[in-house]
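Order emerges. One example.
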Amino acid sequence: MLVSKVLYLITQKRIRPSEIVMITFTNKAAAEMKKRIENAGYGKLGFVGTFHSFCASLLRKYAGRLGYGPDFVIFDDDDQGALLKQIIKEKDIARMTASYLSHLISAAKNQLIPPDKFTTFFPQERAADVAKIYSTYQARLKKNNAFDFDDLIIKVVELFRKDDEVRFLIHDKYTQILIDEFQDTNYAQYSLARLLSEESMDITVVGDFSQSIYSWRGADIRNLEKFQEDFPEGKVFELEQNYRSTPPILDFAYTVISKNNGHPILKLFTEKNGGEDIVIKQTQNEEDEALYLVSEIERLQSKFDYKEIAVLYRINAQSRAIEEALLQYGLPYMLIGGIRFYERKEIKDILSYMRLIINPDNEVAQERIMKLGKRKWVEFVEKAIPIREDIEKKDTESLMEEIFSATNYLALYNEKDPDEYSRLENIKELKSMANSYPNINDFLEQIALVESEYSEG
């Protein structure tokens, strides 16, 4: 869509390619757009890339206007986490993790909320502490002549709002702004889009209310509605023809999406024929679900290679039952974008506690728990004695609960932190598995067998 619009602007409206900016959300999509335009023989555009790369290119030229040097560095997630950990330690603030603070600071930046306004817009528990860390964090970034990824956008917005000369220079240089996946923009990105186009009002955006899946990282589908308010002379074209999916998929999707009354719904169509029907299978529990998946994979394997079959799940904790079933039946698999269930930190920690309840001399488990802190180790040693009493009368889940109570292990994770919430979900899944193996020795043996099957595979 956007590539066609660019070619139209160049060939029909005689817009110079150097005046056109195309922005999307992934480098892969940007590279594909750039290649298609270059292959058409019209040369390079003014810019093709992501919001962050576009802003970084502007800051390399104009960062001095904000008090930064042109040779600034960009802090990635690891750098950001390391800096926050330093600040937490210096300020001696307990019960706050770097990942939790990073999440809150990013949420604030996505809404263009500075440190001094944080408590107004985030009136939550310990907001004042977060605001202080946020303020110190920003000061330390500047001291290091560094930006994090969120800064790249908010600093350009700040630049445009403060410096008319720069804003007019950019308006003169780039007269046509095109943005893909607009439903995934947050407030800061929307503000940037508006500032870029407020002079010429020549802006094209492509977006789909029904494809917004990034609200958890600040995306706001209301930006599509706001766009129509801020650009009242804009024209809306409904692109209802689908080129990828088959009729059964489109019909099923519409049946689900049409129940949403919160935004406009398009009835998509395709000129493709055929396609398999959607199957909804209700199973009794996660183990039955995993076995059903195995049977379906074996059925499909006569037509497709294993590498052509994908299994999607909603949260990482759901991988446990699926992984075990695949291993049990000898089906090869690769876990994408995650760590095997029993290799996850929180799972290994809990299993180490449980192995020490059975065998206090387990050196490997001892070493792992001691790394959690000397105090926690001493407390566990003292409280493990009553846990072991009458152990043969206790089921696995009860023992697990006693360990949680004795060690206060769950307090290590903040459920408001997305990463740590995922760890708590994994722990919940481990507890669920404990119901199937009430004897702790059977429980630990089953896990060992599952892991050995993976190693042998």
The CA atoms of residues 164 and 170 lie 10 Å apart.
